[in-house]
Write a sequence for this structure.
């Protein structure tokens, strides 16, 4: 079954110049990249992305980590699409805890645990199709994705101000 999944190269991955390595590993899946952008993550976006972990002791550190306070204030967000995309990508990512992750997985090869106890594990990938839908809709607008994956609607706006090139 064709699926879509959200992938984030987290700020530690960008700071450590791992983008090329991560994309090369992901290309083993033979999935299609259907959206990508660099995002400066706001606290609001970080908190919405990790809303399920609000009660964890590492939550505040996790929010600072994904916002880039410890590395660079940027994340590379992508949508991958294709047969069994969710499981294929999770497999290459490896386990959440980089010390327990398979050493040849992305997290096993490049992740670390900080002295503050946060798992800096380089990459995020949706865990199942419900999570993928929630996360893709949080990070991307429909027109930023080159295939139709979820139903869309039209919102007519009367007066919109937006920044344009001067
Ligand atoms: P996942 O990223 O493998 O889906 P989640 O449980 O959704 O794992 O956790 C989100 C992120 O929170 C992890 O990728 C990791 O950066 C961090 N994290 C999860 N569990 C722990 C923990 O027990 N200690 C420290 N950081 C954690
Ligand atoms: Mg998760």
């Amino acid at each position: 079954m064709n699926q879509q999944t959200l992938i984030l190269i987290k700020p530690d991955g960008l700071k450590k110049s791992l983008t090329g390595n991560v994309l090369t590993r992901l290309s083993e899946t033979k999935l299609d990249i259907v959206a990508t952008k660099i995002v400066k993550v706001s606290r609001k976006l970080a908190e919405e992305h990790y809303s399920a972990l609000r009660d964890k002791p590492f939550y505040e550190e996790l929010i600072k980590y994904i916002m880039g306070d410890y590395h660079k204030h940027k994340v590379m967000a992508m949508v991958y699409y294709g047969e069994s995309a969710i499981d294929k990508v999770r497999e290459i990512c490896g386990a959440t805890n980089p010390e327990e992750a398979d050493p040849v997985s992305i997290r096993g090869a490049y992740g670390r645990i900080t002295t503050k106890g946060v798992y800096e594990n380089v990459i995020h990938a949706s865990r199942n199709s419900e999570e993928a839908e929630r996360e893709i809709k949080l990070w991307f607008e429909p027109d930023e994705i080159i295939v139709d994956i979820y139903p869309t609607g039209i919102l007519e706006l009367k007066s919109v101000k937006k920044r344009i090139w001067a």
In short: The helical segments are 11-15, 19-27, 43-49, 59-67, 85-93, 106-110, 129-139. Residues 129-139 form the longest helix (11 residues). The beta strands are 2-9, 32-39, 75-83, 112-113, 119-120, 123-125.
